[in-house]
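Possible regression after last week's pipeline update?

I re-ran a chain I had predicted before the update to compare outputs. Posting the input and the new output here so someone can diff against the archived version. Not blocking, just want to make sure nothing changed silently.
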Amino acid sequence: MSFKLRNSAHDALADLFDRGILYNGATVMVGGFGLCGIPEQLILALRDTGVRELTCISNNAGVDNWGLGLLLQTKQIKKMISSYVGENATFERQFIDGELEVEFNPQGTLAERIRAGGAGIPAFYTATGAGTLIAQGKETRELVPPRHNARINAADPHAATREFVLETGLYADLALVKAHKGDEFGNLVYRKTARNFNPMMATAAACVIAEVEEIVPLGSLDPDRVHTPGSFVDRVVRTNSEKRIEQRTTRP
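New output (post-update):
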């Protein structure tokens, strides 16, 4: 089962150009929440490939000197699909100067778009963002909310409806995820906040590479504790995490 293991983050990405998975203009999902649970060494390796005009799908864009902020510094990202980018001055400057395209999403909508893409669902309706700038240019419909369908006949002309926005599922060429533990087959276990976005991204890309802190023998993970089955994961690499703090706050 060791065919999935790679010696380094750079090695894990080395042949992706030749295989047509990574290319200029590719779409890449990057897991994590703030600086927690980000595949930091894979991001560095992605930067070093020199790939350009990327569309990056990530909850946030890192900070100026870490995470996806490193790819913004080198202007390798053409478009960000995110829900929060407030910690990155480079992002702000590039967006204002028209150098970076941005597609903002409510955080729950972003998570569901990724989950839907991994489940093969091309689109879904959500009430989040209806009547706001989020809905501009998107299809909307008046529907009976699901919680009412259980009690009210949807064909009833007096049924309470509300506006819903059509959102599309997301799917990427490549997903870079970070886990606490992984085995040789790629079964993954995440730790606490690092579980945000990583599990659904691991289902929503043509190629999935996992950066883990610890490689354990095959069969040693409790099946009931596995968050991402190895069948979703193409490659695994163990790295040493720096675990930087996004906003350090200390008492005097």
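Follow-up from reviewer: compared with the archived run. The first strand starts at residue 5 and ends at 6. Marking as no regression found.
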